[in-house]
Every structure is written in C-alpha cells, then in structure tokens.
C-alpha cells in the first residue's frame, strides 16, 4: 500500500482543517507531505480559526497557529495515494496557481482518493471534472459546485458525502466522519476491540 498523502495548504487555511488531517493521518502511519506553491520545506503558513456561533450569518474568523510546510511542492503527483484539500480562505487563491490545478486534476483523472473539507471544494471546482458527482461543502460554495455540474448535497456540518473517490464535508465538525471514509478509500479499516 502506498502510504504517501499530499495535503495542499496555504496562508489562512482553516487551522483545524490543516492540523487534524496532518496529525491523524500521521498517527495512522501515513507520510503526509504538506505543501504550498511558492513556499519551500520548513516555510510556514498562517492559519485561521473559523468558529460557528448561533445566530451569526456566517463563521467568525480569528488568527490561528503557524503551520510548517514539510515538503516542497511536487513535480510529479503520481507518487501520492491520496489528496487532502483543507478549507479556509487559502483555496480561493491557491486555485490561481497552475501547479495546484495540475495536481488536483491528476487525482481526479486517476480516481485516487480525495477529501475536501469546507472551501477545499474550490480546488475541485476550479479544475472541473465533477460533473454528476454528489458533493458537499460550506454552503457559500454550493453555487461553484452546481455551476461546474456537480450535485450539491446539503448535510449537517458533522456529516459527509462520498461519491466514488471523493469525500466531502461542509466544515471541520465532520472531520471524524470524513477521514474515516477517506482512509477506507486508501484501504485502511479502523476497528475497535
């Protein structure tokens, strides 16, 4: 089993959506290469914390932690078994980098496991290739899904939608479910004794 996972991050990506997958997948024995275009191994990205409060029309944002990039951006994505696309504000500008789009397109075309949380969907919609796929995301991104021919599924923030090789969740409260499904696609089953 290929145990290398690629995670594309950038400044003001959502803190939990970066740290949780990095730590959880590492705990399970995967090598997670966290990369960012125009940054090198050991550079840092700033994260943002998004919090949901009853009565607010959208999430509240505050400054998160610094996250250290642990690999250079890959020239060849074929070495990776799966792709993690965290949300936050980073995807809105990461999709402007051709090298990011090439990587995302590789995973879509090769039907390798992809997990996109929250605004991470913006990297899938920028590439296309989601026509007819059932997907979810932060509700503000649903029009990007439908304009690209995807089928937006409204689910709770702690729920997921799985369609083939793609796992999506609207926000970080869905991490446990999203990454359980993602690792299943990678051939890992988590059981309790």
UniProtKB/TrEMBL annotation:
Which Pfam families does this entry report, sorted A to Z?
A: DJ-1_PfpI
- Tell me the ranges covered by the DJ-1/PfpI domain, including all copies: 4-182
* Protein name, UniProt field: DJ-1/PfpI domain-containing protein
Q: Organism, per UniProt?
A: Paramecium octaurelia
């Amino acid at each position: 089993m290929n145990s290398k996972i690629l995670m594309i991050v950038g400044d003001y990506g959502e803190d939990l959506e970066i740290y949780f997958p990095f730590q959880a997948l590492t705990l399970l024995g995967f090598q997670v290469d966290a990369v960012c275009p125009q940054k090198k191994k050991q550079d840092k990205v700033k994260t943002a914390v998004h919090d949901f409060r009853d009565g607010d029309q959208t999430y509240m944002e505050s400054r998160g932690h610094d996250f250290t990039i642990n690999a250079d951006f890959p020239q060849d994505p074929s070495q990776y078994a799966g792709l993690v696309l965290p949300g936050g504000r980073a995807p809105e500008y990461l999709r402007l980098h051709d090298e990011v789009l090439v990587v995302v397109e590789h995973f879509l075309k090769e039907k390798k496991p992809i997990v996109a949380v929250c605004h991470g969907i913006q990297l899938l919609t920028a590439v296309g290739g989601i026509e007819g796929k059932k997907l979810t995301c932060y509700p503000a991104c649903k029009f990007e899904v439908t304009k690209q021919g995807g089928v937006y599924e409204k689910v709770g923030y702690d729920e997921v939608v799985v369609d083939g090789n793609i796992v999506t969740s609207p926000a970080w409260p869905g991490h446990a479910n999203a990454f359980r499904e993602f690792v299943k696609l990678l051939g890992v089953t988590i059981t309790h004794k």
